[in-house]
Amino acid sequence: MLRVARLAAGYGQSQALFDVTFDIAAGEVVTLLGRNGMGKTTTVRAVMGLLRPWSGEIVFDGVALAGLPPHRIARLGIGLVPEGRQVFPTLTVEENLIATCRPGRWTLSRVFALFPRLAERRRNLGARLSGGEQQMLAIGRALMTNPRLLILDEATEGLAPLVRAEIWSVIAALKAEGLSILLIDKNLAAVLRLADRHVVLEKGRTVWAGSSAALAAAPEVRDAHLHV
Ligand code: ATP
């Protein structure tokens, strides 16, 4: 479904990605792992068209994405839950959701069924929500675009344990529905349970890729490249 090969990109003159390579099959949950500053968010930004790739391939369902603007990439079926949530602060919950709506299985009522808390808060402004509610709204907003691939960048970061658990159960439910997911998250135990495969980045390069079982059995990879 998504193939990223030999991706290089950066900011100004400063190169952040040198050789990022991975793929995601339909229905798979894949994580991008690596310590801070290794290029996970930059990879996501390049896939979404928020940063122009310098070289390499990004192909989604047979369409080359490099050079396409973000709205075209979103329309092709990739939904992003960005780092830091970035909900529209001056719009209500409902307006935030409607703003990104595209026809498909995900509707306002399905998002409200997934996150009853958002239904209770539907007339509240984005800026007035708690961190957990903003995160739910960011996920709901991405689902309203009816993506075939959902990218979650640090969706559980900085949340209280109960809210975090709710976000994990929602991600598991989306996986059970067959949605393809690219996940960035520091909670290794949670991603080992949930994801099918993992891709480890080190200084802008893919240095390891494998299944949860393979990663669980590779303490040297965790010691060398991850937080744990
Ligand atoms: P984190 O977990 O901290 O978000 P990350 O793996 O997502 O880490 P990136 O944010 O992709 O890492 O950063 C990769 C490299 O690019 C780092 O060296 C970082 O300093 C640099 N970088 C990130 N954003 C910018 C920017 N806007 N301008 C210049 N350099 C940047």
From TrEMBL:
<keyword id="KW-0547">Nucleotide-binding</keyword>
<dbReference type="GO" id="GO:0016887">
    <property type="term" value="F:ATP hydrolysis activity"/>
</dbReference>
<dbReference type="GO" id="GO:0015807">
    <property type="term" value="P:L-amino acid transport"/>
</dbReference>
<feature type="domain" description="ABC transporter">
    <location>
        <begin position="2"/>
        <end position="228"/>
    </location>
</feature>
<keyword id="KW-0029">Amino-acid transport</keyword>
<dbReference type="GO" id="GO:0005524">
    <property type="term" value="F:ATP binding"/>
</dbReference>
<protein>
    <submittedName>
        <fullName>ABC transporter ATP-binding protein</fullName>
    </submittedName>
</protein>
<dbReference type="InterPro" id="IPR017871">
    <property type="entry name" value="ABC_transporter-like_CS"/>
</dbReference>
<dbReference type="GO" id="GO:0015658">
    <property type="term" value="F:branched-chain amino acid transmembrane transporter activity"/>
</dbReference>
<dbReference type="Pfam" id="PF00005">
    <property type="entry name" value="ABC_tran"/>
</dbReference>
<keyword id="KW-0813">Transport</keyword>
<dbReference type="InterPro" id="IPR003593">
    <property type="entry name" value="AAA+_ATPase"/>
</dbReference>
<dbReference type="InterPro" id="IPR003439">
    <property type="entry name" value="ABC_transporter-like_ATP-bd"/>
</dbReference>
<dbReference type="InterPro" id="IPR027417">
    <property type="entry name" value="P-loop_NTPase"/>
</dbReference>
<dbReference type="InterPro" id="IPR052156">
    <property type="entry name" value="BCAA_Transport_ATP-bd_LivF"/>
</dbReference>
<keyword id="KW-0067">ATP-binding</keyword>
<comment type="similarity">
    <text>Belongs to the ABC transporter superfamily.</text>
</comment>
